[in-house]
Specification:
Elements: H1 2-76, H2 79-89, H3 96-116, E1 121-125, E2 131-134, H4 150-157, E3 162-166, E4 173-182, E5 185-194, H5 196-206, E6 211-217, E7 233-235, E8 242-245, H6 251-254, H7 260-269, H8 273-281, E9 285-291, E10 294-304, E11 310-319, H9 321-353, H10 359-370, E12 375-380, E13 385-388, H11 390-396, H12 400-403, H13 408-412, E14 413-414, H14 427-434, E15 438-445, E16 451-463, E17 466-477, H15 479-497, E18 501-506, E19 511-514, H16 516-522, H17 526-529, H18 544-557, E20 559-567, E21 573-584, E22 590-599, H19 601-615, H20 625-642, E23 645-654, H21 656-663, H22 665-682, E24 688-693, E25 696-704, H23 707-722, E26 725-727, E27 730-732, E28 735-743, H24 750-766, E29 771-776, E30 781-784
Helix pairs in contact: 1-5, 1-9, 1-15, 2-3, 9-10, 9-11, 9-15, 21-22, 22-23
């Protein structure tokens, strides 16, 4: 008997322990689940801030680059500067200091304006990478830069504009290096460098509540500068691998020193494992922070240098009070849920032991506790609170005794800011009075007078199959989620209101989002491009290798920037400056691409018009003397390299003055246009027809294999010119005299070739016109044909 009693006691004790363990486990699970929900919501808030920082940075960098390119044309690469540079490139080495001084005086006033606008330096380089003139340090020159400055090397070897962050011998900066050409000659490159603070000012306009700083990778900043300049950097306070510019040395940096609160937050953040993991990935990331009861998002936008290497981060600390509120609310919910589970378990245990005595109380508590979620209260027909759970008390700031038995509607329910409505009109009370279920958002007031948005669900109370004159109302504070939505809308506002077109694609290049500016530039609305590949914009002007090189740069360096021609929805082509950046996950894999597009069609058309005016004859549209000079020099260079021949024919119309005198200058102009049309028809695509002025023309025939080739062309020209030209009722009749000289038979320079062909032309006129004469370099006489 004793053995049976002991065994039964042991089984009861074991069941009790199993039950207690089960309840504790359930409570821990509820607590962990709610806490995990907070972490997910906090991560979404942080990601929205990271997206806002990335979009704001790319928009700011793009706008700043366009402004610099405009200043480059108006203040730096002016015609006097280009002309001086071209002459200096031909000067003897001992004369270069004199030319450098001339360039410095010519650039002094423009540089003062640029420097006053925030430019750190203007630096001119020779094609071989040697420094020519530093406007900020004119006495330091001729030092080789290719080994220490990748941007200078790329601009002078690949002839591409290079834009991006780069270290230096003194301070790093955002550098813009442009190859410089003048009349077909590569003169070198020019660099315009700005500090981070210039971008900082623009970023503060887009993100005014953020406290920002620049974090530099020590390997390409403090470790690469000259030893005497290492004091320009101080530890970042976040990681030994990163530094900051020393504010006690840099007057510009001193304007944007971090606040004492941010400095303290950085010191605390440096001890957090999440920071070190994010920095080690060298990719953009964001961390939600709760420190001393304050909520902040630390956003890190990763920067790469011009060679695609990781260079550092733009760091933004954005106050986020909703994080603290959301964390407190979630902790309260977690504890409430865990306590609720424990209370439920304890109640069920007690009900099992006191089943008969507390049966009715058990059923009542079960009805209430089984429907418990977040804040919960039970209201009777008079509007009084019959029951209020712990979560509701915590959310409202009351104790249970302060709420139970009182008209809860009057205490907590706000239907408008600082206002109420009668109890009978309250939609929550309608559930009690009429059994109507209600779900919606309402405004609740805490005991301290603060008001918060609540998601409310009210259900009639059913007891033993009958509707009781009461209702169960559940609510949760949605203030944090509302504020998170506001932050997301702010990021979307930046996305929609920048002037540059922005397009986001997935890893396969299919569009997932585009802003209004993108639709304005391309002609395609957002709905028309979603899910489609950007190949739809291809104009056909670029060779396939162009796009291959572009994507190779994006994949290898993380970004690409350049000019591109696309096709508008309406069918016409447009020119644009395109920046493509790869967005990478923490493991380095590409998750999406962001393209920023600026329409420069008007600028391109203006440049083409200026080129046409400068290089082509206004009346006939054929090349003028300036373009002929360039093509002749190029043709002589190719002939020397490849061992080929060329012919230069100087042509003058016979009888053209008589046409002007008899029929007027308008008829003469029409005759010249017709002659150009005929002459062009006599030439090959590789040849050049140029008008020097009046009725004088020059024919440049290249890549000749034998004499018969140029002779056939010249005879064809004589015949074409001699054909009459209809002019109303008249027929205009002219001929031409042509002087020809051959290279390398006449092995002289371009100016001498022009003179010799001119001399031979005059001999053709003296010999009777309507013929050609070949210049003889051996006898310095011309023989007729």
């Amino acid at each position: 008997m004793k053995r049976h009693v002991a065994s039964r006691w042991l089984r009861l004790r074991l069941r009790l322990l199993v039950w207690v363990a089960f309840i504790v486990g359930m409570a821990a699970g509820v607590f962990g689940y709610v806490q995990a929900g907070y972490e997910r919501e906090a991560a979404l808030v942080a990601q929205s801030q990271q997206t806002a920082l990335s979009v704001a940075y790319h928009a700011t960098a793009s706008m700043h680059q366009l402004e610099l390119e405009t200043r480059l044309r108006t203040d730096v690469l002016t015609p006097p500067v280009l002309a001086l540079w071209a002459r200096a490139s031909q000067a003897a080495p001992e004369d270069l200091p004199l030319w450098r001084g001339r360039l410095y005086r010519l650039m002094a006033q423009p540089y003062q304006r640029l420097h006053a606008d925030g430019l750190r330096q203007v630096h001119f380089h020779w094609p071989d990478g040697r420094s020519w003139l530093r406007m900020h340090s004119p006495d330091l020159s001729n030092d080789p830069l290719f080994e220490v400055r990748a941007s200078v090397r790329l601009a002078n070897t690949r002839y591409l504009s290079v834009h991006g962050f780069e270290g230096g011998r003194v301070l790093p900066g955002f550098r813009h290096v442009y190859p410089v050409w003048h009349q077909g000659q590569h003169l070198g490159s020019v660099e315009m460098s700005v500090p981070f603070e210039q971008l900082h000012q623009q970023l503060m306009v887009l993100l005014p509540s953020a406290d920002m700083q620049l974090l530099l990778d020590k390997r390409i900043s403090a470790d690469t500068v000259a030893p005497q300049f290492r004091s320009h950097f101080v530890p970042s306070g976040l990681s030994d691998a990163y530094v900051r510019e020393n504010p006690s040395i840099s007057q510009v940096t001193r304007q944007f020193m971090a606040s004492a609160q941010t400095t303290e937050l950085s010191a605390w953040l440096a001890t957090q494992p999440g920071l070190q993991a994010g920095l080690a990935a060298q990719a953009s990331f964001a961390l939600p922070l709760l420190h001393q009861g304050q909520g902040t998002v630390a956003s890190f936008h990763a920067l790469d240098d011009v060679e695609g290497r990781h260079a550092g981060y733009v760091v933004a600390y954005t106050p986020m009070p909703q994080l603290a509120q959301m964390g407190l609310a979630k902790r309260q919910q977690a504890w409430a849920g865990a306590v609720g589970v424990l209370v439920l378990g304890a109640a069920m245990l007690m009900l099992r032991r006191q089943r008969h005595r507390l049966q009715r109380e058990k059923q009542r508590l079960s009805v209430i506790t089984e429907q418990m979620a977040d804040g919960l209260y039970v209201m009777d027909a008079a509007g009084r609170a019959l029951y209020v759970n712990h979560a509701a008390c915590q959310a409202l700031g009351y104790t249970e005794s302060e709420l139970r038995g009182r008209e809860i509607h009057r205490l907590i329910h706000q239907h408008a800011q600082n206002g109420q409505m009668p109890l009978q009109d309250c939609p929550v009370y309608q559930t009690t009075a009429h059994g109507r279920m209600y779900a919606g958002e309402e405004r609740f007031c805490r005991q301290d007078g603060t008001v918060f948005e609540a998601e409310v669900r009210s259900t009639p109370l059913v007891y033993e199959g009958q509707r009781a004159p009461a209702s169960v109302t559940l609510f949760r504070d949605v203030t944090a989620s509302k504020q998170a939505q506001t932050q997301l809308r702010q990021a979307a506002s930046v996305f929609e209101h920048v002037h540059e077109g922005i397009c986001v694609t997935d890893a396969q290049g299919n569009v997932v989002d585009a802003n209004a500016a993108y639709a304005r530039i391309t002609g395609y609305g957002r709905d028309e491009v979603l899910g489609r590949n950007l190949r739809m914009l291809t104009s056909g002007r670029h060779a396939p290798g162009f796009y291959q090189a572009m994507w190779d740069a994006v994949l290898n360096q993380g970004h690409w920037r350049g000019e591109i021609w696309n096709r508008h929805k309406a069918g016409h082509e447009y020119a644009a400056v395109l920046t493509v950046s790869a967005i990478k996950a923490g493991d380095g894999s590409v998750t999406s691409y962001v393209g920023i597009l600026s329409d420069i069609t008007a600028l391109k058309l203006h440049e083409a018009e200026l080129e046409r005016i400068a290089l082509y004859d206004a009346l006939t549209g054929v090349p003028n003397r300036r373009l002929l000079q360039t093509r002749l020099e190029d043709a002589l260079g190719r002939a020397r390299r490849h061992g080929t021949r060329l012919a230069l024919a100087y042509l003058d119309l016979d009888g053209f003055k008589a046409v002007n005198d008899m029929h007027g200058h308008e008829a003469g102009d029409r005759l010249l246009v017709e002659m150009c049309r005929r002459l062009s028809g006599c030439l090959r695509e590789t040849d050049t027809l140029a008008r020097l002025g009046g009725d004088e023309f020059v024919l440049l025939l290249v890549d000749l294999k034998q004499d018969a080739e140029w002779q056939v062309v010249v005879q064809r020209v004589l015949d074409a010119v001699a054909r009459p030209v209809p002019e109303g009722e008249h027929r205009l009749q002219v001929s031409c005299s042509i002087g020809v000289t051959l290279y390398p038979d006449n092995n002289v320079g371009p100016d001498a070739l022009m003179r010799h062909a001119d001399q031979a032309m005059y001999q053709a006129k003296q010999a009777g016109k309507n013929r050609y004469v070949l210049f003889d370099p051996a006898s310095v006489n011309a023989t007729g044909a």
